[in-house]
Amino acid sequence: MFVGCIDIGGTFTDLILYERGKGLEIMKSPTTPGEFERGFMDVLTLAAKSRGLSLTDFLAKLELLVHGTTVSTNALVEGKVATAGLICNAGHPDILTLREAPRKRAFLTKIDYPEPYIPRKFTCEVRGRIDSMGNEIDPLVEADVVAAAKHLETCNVAAVAVSLLWSIVNPKHELRVREILQNELPGIPVTLSHELNPVPREYRRTIATAINASLYPIVGAYVSQLDQALRAAGYKNELLIANCVGGMMPPDEIIARPIYSVMSGPTLAPIAAMHLTTDPNVIVVDMGGTTFDVSALRDRQLVVTPEATFGMDMLGIPKIDVRSVGAGGGSIAWVDAGGLIKVGPQSAAAKPGPACYGKGGTEATVTDANVVLGIIDPDYFLGGQMKLDRGRAVEAVERFARKVGLGTVEAAYAIYTTSNHNMIGAVEDITVNEGIDPRDSYLVSGGGATACHIGEMAQILGIKRFMIPSFAAGLSAYGGLISDVRWEEAATLHETHTDFDVERTNALIDRLRQRGRDFLDRAGFPRNRQRFEYAYQGRYLYQSWDIEVPFTLPGDRLGAGDFPRLAAAFHQMHERIYTIKDENDVVEFTTWKVRAVGDTGGADRRGVDLPRQVGLPAPKSRRKVYLGAKQGFVELPVYQGDKLGSGARIDGPALIEEPTTTILLLKGQTAVTDAHRNYLVELRV
């Protein structure tokens, strides 16, 4: 019997398959933009053929299938979302226009002011008002809602977002608006802000509601089509979809809240890293065909950000903090107006792909450069399943070389090093720019292309220890394979650690926990496989910005003596993020969260133990690799990774070829395999 996870990337669709007694296996099939479900089924067909089974027979043996989708992410990036309408309070139609004046863009003075996510012509105001205490100041004018529905019907909207002031403390008006809309616009999905994102910040609550509404038809159609294709092919068991808070959800739940599928694939990489290492502080990198993603673990905790952005808009909901730059194997090299070499963010992606793929690409990419430099063997790409065309790679790099006045090999190396520095900048953004020294962290390298580059990146960053998992090319897919089902319930309740109502706070936590338990019950988890995690958002009194702080809840209830403990945890978190704290200041708690977790048994899904390596590993061949102007072409030993045993030691400079990745070790770097053939690399002293 099998368990599998499929992660759709920009170039390849990855399948990590776990079979009891035989461990893990990675398979890759080209991604099919515009028809992602076809690539999804293609990689399952590939897995069936590898075992001599028909697709139907293979699916009958598949106990569980989990999936990280890029459909919602691509829709946002490309602006191909469904047309949505917004209903808001009278006098407040500009919430999405004014935003929060994002701090990180304060000095971008030469850009046009961005349009609101939902245009004003699709924004309708309704009279009625709830105050901050939940009192009804003015009753809802239902005629305004009816008029709004008629206007939005003429606009042909596919979904409606409803975000009214202080619905988080009294949702009466929002609930009535939905009832009216369901009567006036039957079949049109409605998203209510207090149900989706119950936080006090109006812009964040409204933008999340707007994004969710615009994604509802797209994600719903994709997940439904995928589920139907699987059922038609004979799959009868459970399908789970990745979310952006580090877990999985049943299809019906992700269809109802599609915003939680945004960037869900990359958020699985730190989940995988948490299972691969015991280090407290970890940097996780993942270089695919289109992007390079960076995330981190701090004190064995996932880093959650409430300020994730897309373009000039926030996502509005908290998600695992993953920073992405356009630096993948398919990233295209070009020259700017000043004559400087640039790589990305434009990508050859899956179609047409790098020139060496022979599918019509003509621009020089990072993968083409690696072929020209000798790092990648064109005859052993994907373990020899896909042959690369070295001649086309050379032609593409030669055309680029003429633009910059370099030789072909020198131009390829310039592409290689420029890409490395782009990725180093992304690592520094999540470490140095956050006050963290990357040299104090362990590094886990994921992605099919990363191992070609990680040696030089580690040297420049001063990182002396890093890991390249044997399944690095499917790191995010592995994260999905071992992830639990996870959901989050939140609500607003203002308290301070010096003036609080224990019973009111406990009553709120009880309600959130019960809603989380209801979710897990619907997902089919017995009580002995359910657990709950707790967090709050807090700030110093009169401070503008909240931070999230996890806490434990012994006995399932807070006591009067727990609030000083929660405040102490806030001081520590504030110091970790901002390097300062004020233990004499009052801590204000604004939002309370309960995360419901259903145990899928993923922690036991790992590779089988390898036999110990006997003697020194012997290289299978030698290959000339260009290592820069000082060294030129150097003949390096090439080792076949899937033939190595546990405890094998390989000293750089050397190449290790796995079926789905190629590792370049530089001088002074030594790799030792562990029991699952993960490569533990250290700098020799």
From TrEMBL:
Top-level taxon of the source organism: Bacteria
Start and end residues of each Hydantoinase/oxoprolinase N-terminal domain: 5-184
InterPro entries on file: ACX-like_C, ATPase_NBD, Hydant_A_N, Hydantoinase_A, Oxoprolinase-like
Occurrences of domain Acetophenone carboxylase-like C-terminal (ranges): 508-677
Any one cellular-component term (Gene Ontology): cytosol
Residue ranges of domain Hydantoinase A/oxoprolinase in the record: 205-488
GO-annotated molecular function: 5-oxoprolinase (ATP-hydrolyzing) activity
One biological process term in Gene Ontology: glutathione metabolic process
Protein known as: 5-oxoprolinase
Source organism per UniProt: Hypericibacter terrae
